[in-house]
Amino acid sequence: MTDLRPPPTSLLDTYRGAEFQPLYVTTVHVSGGETHHARASGCVRSDDGALDIVLRLPNEMGGQGGGTNPEQLFAAGYGACFHGALNLLAARHQIPIKDCSVHVTVAFGRDPVDGRHSITADLVVKLPGHDRTTAERLVRETERICPYAKMARQGIDSTIRVET
């Protein structure tokens, strides 16, 4: 028996501060591996060592496969965050959602707007045992509070700086 517990529903309480208030911060280091190109042979390590994976360019993009890729990592993060937010909302509303799942499909491709690259994400939420109205209401509310859904809809604050 483990002592794992879901986070408290108090995470859903509305924040009224004037500035962004970090609740958790993490850092990952990405390096290029043997090809000096992270997408083709990179390594990703988190500052706490919990994440330590090899990146590989997928076969579909001309790579050798055999590792994970940024699209899989994004899909995993988006799905986990949405699933977590959904469960917190259900707990707050006292709606049991046993065996719910979130399936995320991320596509990397050409952007017709600027000719560069872009990604798309499609989520399918399965809520067995619930009527469509309840399920859709819960999912729509989750869309409004899930940080990944918010990021996909609105973008995020991001900075990029160079160190030499």
Number of domains: 2
What is the average of the pLDDT values?
94
Q: State which percent range the strand residues make up.
A: 15-25%
Q: What is the CATH topology assignment of the largest domain?
A: GMP Synthetase, Chain A, domain 3
Class computed from helices, strands and strand pairing: alpha+beta
Question: How are the SSEs ordered, and which strands pair?
Answer:
Blueprint: E1 28-31, H1 38-41, E2 43-46, E3 52-54, H2 70-92, E4 101-110, E5 117-126, H3 132-145, H4 147-154
Antiparallel strand pairs: 1-2, 2-3, 4-5
Helix pairs in contact: 2-3
Explain the overall architecture:
- By secondary structure, the protein is an alpha+beta fold.
- The protein has two domains: 62 residues, Single Sheet (N-terminal domain of TfIIb), CATH 2.20.25; 96 residues, K homology (KH) domain (GMP Synthetase, Chain A, domain 3), CATH 3.30.300.
- The chain is 30% helix and 19% strand.
- Strand 2 and strand 3 form a beta hairpin.
- Helix 2 packs across helix 3.
- The chain is globular.
- The termini are far apart.
- The relative contact order is 0.11.
- The mean pLDDT is 94.
A few lines on this structure:
By secondary structure, the protein is of the alpha+beta class. Helices cover 30% and strands 19% of the residues. It has helices at 38-41, 70-92, 132-145, 147-154; strands at residues 28-31, 43-46, 52-54, 101-110, 117-126.
Relevant terms:
164 residues; alpha+beta; GMP Synthetase, Chain A, domain 3; 2 domains; two-stranded antiparallel ribbon; globular
